[in-house]
Model the fold of this input.
Amino acid sequence: MARRQIIKNGDPVLHKKSRAVERFDERLGQLLDDMTATMRAAEGCGLAAVQVGVLRRVAVIDAGDGLLELVNPEIIGQEGQQEEQEGCLSFPGEHGITRRPAVVRVRAQNRQGTWCFYKAEGLKARAFCHEIDHLDGITFKSRVIREG
Ligand code: ZN
Done:
């Protein structure tokens, strides 16, 4: 595993849309391993591939209850609302209150290409929304509804 450089605010790549993963090969496994090492070193709870300069629909999340490796993730259901403070490893020191669904249902492939289904609430629901936004070139800054 190797840590990769996290792309910071101001780089236009953060606003680009990532492409679907089609090959479930060793390169994908290496990317996932490197992203996990990078997220852990930065003490974040999520990281999208675009944040290490790779425009592929890949993200890792660890909201405190274990690592999730997400390939081609999609939100397939949502309920309710929550308004909580959010930040991003690409925007060091910046925070704001965002409005997100209280509960999300997500489907994503794993590193072998098998579809997996997730249901999350609280911080983990926010992390899913935040990382999937990154894959569409959307940063949390455009979701901030007030300072906080
Ligand atoms: Zn982020």
Summary: The chain has a mean pLDDT of 97. Residues 12-146 form a domain with the Peptide Deformylase fold (CATH 3.90.45.10). The pocket of zinc ion is lined by residues 88-90, 130, 134 (CB under 6 Å). The first strand starts at residue 46 and ends at 48.
